[in-house]
Design brief:
Layout (H helix, E strand, L loop, with lengths): L17 E7 L3 E8 L9 E5 L9 H12 L3 E5 L13 H17 L8 E5 L2 H12 L1
Parallel strand pairs: 3-4, 3-5
Antiparallel strand pairs: 1-2, 2-4
Helix pairs in contact: 2-3
Length: about 140
């Protein structure tokens, strides 16, 4: 794990979480996870921006993502640069760039129309989600 978190980390459950690696800004890599419901392509997606100092490898974040998924949403979350398995060094501008890259991935690679995406975040991730709304 590149970045450190103050929370307990645990491996992702592969029966629920599908790992993805996003490339952007040249050689930068972002680790991300999908939680999907295979039987329905017309669901709403939650693009979740994690709080500061956390990653999708943190137990409490995984629990939150699973809860959103249990409500019937498909969920996409990513690790900011420098956290989890994402490369780079964290910066404020980098948070916004990472969120924009995650949104672009969701619309291009997963073919999710913008009208089906709900932006959400926790703590600092809420500010990142709001900034992403302002960019769109």
């Amino acid at each position: 794990m590149t970045g450190q978190s103050r929370s307990y980390t645990q491996p992702l459950d592969p029966s629920i979480f599908k790992q993805r690696i996003l490339s952007h800004s040249g050689a930068r890599r972002l680790s991300a996870v999908l939680l999907t419901h295979d039987e329905d392509d017309d669901r709403y997606w939650i693009l979740f921006c994690v709080p500061a100092g956390a990653s999708t490898q943190v137990d409490r974040i995984q629990s939150q993502l699973k809860q959103l998924w249990s409500f019937g949403y498909d969920v996409f979350a990513f690790d900011y640069r420098g956290f989890g398995d994402s490369s780079g060094t964290p910066t404020e501008e980098g948070l916004y760039e990472d969120a924009a890259a995650a949104y672009a991935y969701l619309s291009r690679a997963e073919r999710v129309p913008p009208s089906r995406v709900i932006l959400a975040g926790r703590s600092l991730g809420s500010a990142v989600a709001v900034e992403l709304c302002d960019q769109g």
